[in-house]
Amino acid sequence: MSGKASIWNPWHGCHKWSAGCRHCYVYRSDGKYGKDSSVVTKTAKFDLPLQQKKNKEYKIPSGNLVYTCFTSDFLVEDADEWRSEAWEMMRIRQDLRFLFITKRIDRLAECLPADWGDGYDNVTICCTMENQDRVNHRLPIYKAAPIKHKIIICEPLLGPIDFGGELSGGWVEQVVAGGESGREVRVCNYDWVLDIRRQCLEADVSFWFKQTGTYFLKDGQQYKIARQYQHAQARKAAINHTSSHQSELEP
After folding, report:
1. Please, what's the b/e burial string for 90-111 (b: 16 or more CB within 10 A of its CB; e: otherwise)?
2. I need a surface site. Which of 96, 112, 221, 235 has the fewest CB within 10 A?
């Protein structure tokens, strides 16, 4: 996704929800400081999209892509009392593009603002599907959900995934795949990545191989890849794909 990016974390903390949460980077980071990540708290940056500089310009410049709620889940139950204000800020800042990732797509219907309709033009909602079990559960809900911009996140990729031909039809803009980072993490098999790519090409959906993860299995050999090289190694594979009718999006 072109343009500059900003980060907005209106609340912090979450509850582990599915297999992909086992080695959550937020828990890992908070743990270094003895912080309990299961306690969800409103942050000092809650109203960042509306905060202004002394010259009355917004602190987040017009046109930016705003990575939203990346230290929590935007749909986490604990934030129900604050979410309406967050939606309102997104509605006010139509000049920004907001993007958040959720594992709680089944809660979306009860969390939407009254004027949502078939979605806000400036909001991309990504849904994590880390294994076949989560694809089976979340894909039908996600596909039917009223969202203008959809991206499937297969990260951390924990096993082979079969979308059952459901990617076609132009409803999803991109599928992102990537391994798991950290010390005690699970292996990502390159064959799984390539098969997801194949399904994207067949459905003419954009595909992004984001990162290898720490333990990467390719051609029967397992590699341990340092964190600083995981994105670069994925790029070297040169397997990203942009669909014929969509520009490439990289959340």
Report:
1. beebeebbbbbbbbbbebbeeb
2. 221
